[in-house]
Amino acid sequence: MRLGGRLTTWIALSLSLTAAPAAVHGQGGGQAHVEPVQDLQFGQLIPGAQTRVDPADAGRRGELRLEGRGTYQLQFALPTEMVSGSGGKLPVSFGSADGVLVRGSAGGETAFDPSVGTTLVLSRGVTEARVFIGGTARPTASQAAGIYSANITVLMAQN
Amino acid sequence: MRKLILTIVAAMALVLPAQLEAQAGNITATATVNAVFWDGASQNLTFDAVNPGTAASVDVTTGNGGTPGYMEFGFNADYKVTATTLPTTLSETGGSGSTLSVAWECGVSSATTSNPASAAACAQGDVVTSDAAVSGVGSTVVWLGGTIADTNVLAGTYTGSITFTISAN
Q: Is the ipTM of this complex over 0.85?
């Protein structure tokens, strides 16, 4: 009986140790990773003529690759203007149709508003996703010539 | 032994809470606004009737002596305006081969409705105006006048083709 008691105790310990690592991840899984793939490129602009890049425009849209396991909240720090080397400012905006999320390699596309953000669920079997970002550049009629740029930051935070 | 096991399990429990993860990534939005130059309004230079033996001039600052010529240019980048074609003679249109020698003067203003405050001699190839600190879209007007010193030539109408070109500075 004493032996049976010891055996029981040993098994319980082993299960506890095995369970612990899973509990550490909780709703999470693998480490989250955000990788920039392509900048958002408005290209050549003419003063006074606004230009929109659609998230479906593979050559010009901004693109990031996301990896992880779990449920994540995606939030975007978006600029309101691009700035040139000489300090010129070119207004830019992002609307409800300027974000697209694609889960996995064959997942459907989900449109979202980058200014609001969206939720990403990466579960067993689908551990990566892509985010496409479009937007509208609005050069003024008096826009000076130059190269303008601004940063877009994507935050992938686990729920 | 039992007490030891309980202790181990408890220790593991302290590290159980899920570690929240957050990752950030950046991309850049870029755009290029082209340097754009364009032609605006223009006006031919016309001397009033020239009498043989009397020099004739068109003054761009006052408009005296005839109608000054001008060309308006628009820009959104640093620019220069060059007198790319500014002949030294005008040719008689009747085919006589007679010519009139002209000494040109150029001036600059901001609008076609305001004459330049001053003028200076100009010749073919000269950069008559430029701006290396353009901060937005703007326009400039190049004016042309001149003096015909020797008018003892065959009677007739004399003309010449003149070109100013705006380009990046």
A: no
